[in-house]
C-alpha cells in the first residue's frame, strides 16, 4: 500500500476497499469460564460491516461503527484453544448493492465526498470532504473484552424530579 497522503495515492488506496478482509487469532478458554452462566464478547470498536466467527460458527454481525456490540458466545466456545475470526465486508460493495425504498433515494453528495455515505453508520469524513481524502477503511479500532461472570447491568434509566414547597 502506498502512502495515502502523497500525490494521487488516495485513488490507489481507495481501490483496496473493494475487497473483504479477515482478522484471526486463537485464544484459550478454561473450564471455569465455561461453567459461568454467560460468556459475553464486548466489541468496542469494529469498523463497520463485520461478521464474527467463533470456532467456525457465526456468532454475530455488525453494521455500525459508532456503538459497542455485545455477543453471548458461550455456546460457541470449548475448553482449550479456540479461534476468533472477523470478516470485514466491503463498504463499497454494500453501497453498490443497496436497494432504496420507493421514492426514498438520496441524491445529496457532500463536496469532495462519495455518493452513498448516508447509507451506512460509519464516520462520514471517511468518504472524503472538500479538504480530506476518501479513506473508506475497515478494521478493529477499539478493545475487545471477555466478560464471563454474572454481571448486572442497567438497561434503562428514567430520571424524574419531585418538587417540594421549598
Mean pLDDT: 88
Topology pattern, helix = H, strand = E: HEHEEEEEEHEE
Q: What structural class is derived from the secondary structure elements?
A: mainly beta
> What is the approximate shape?
extended
Question: Under the CATH scheme, which architecture of one domain would be assigned?
Answer: Sandwich
**SS elements, strand count:** 9
Regarding CATH, which class of one domain?
Answer: Mainly Beta
Instruction: Tell me the helix content.
Output: 10-25%
Beta-sheet strand percentage?
Answer: 25-35%
Tally of contiguous helical segments: 3
Give me some keywords for this one.
single chain, 3 helices, three-stranded antiparallel beta sheet, 166 residues, mainly beta, four-stranded antiparallel beta sheet, Jelly Rolls
In terms of topology, how is this protein built?
Layout: H1 9-15, E1 21-29, H2 31-34, E2 40-43, E3 46-47, E4 49-54, E5 57-63, E6 69-72, E7 80-88, H3 91-97, E8 139-140, E9 144-147
Antiparallel strand pairs: 1-7, 2-6, 2-9, 3-8, 4-5, 4-7
Task: Describe the fold and architecture.
The chain is mainly beta. The protein has a domain at 19-90 and 137-147: Jelly Rolls. The chain has 3 helices and 9 strands. The mean pLDDT is 88. Residues 5-141 form the Beta-mannosidase-like galactose-binding domain. It comes from human gut metagenome. One of its GO terms (biological process) is glycoprotein catabolic process.
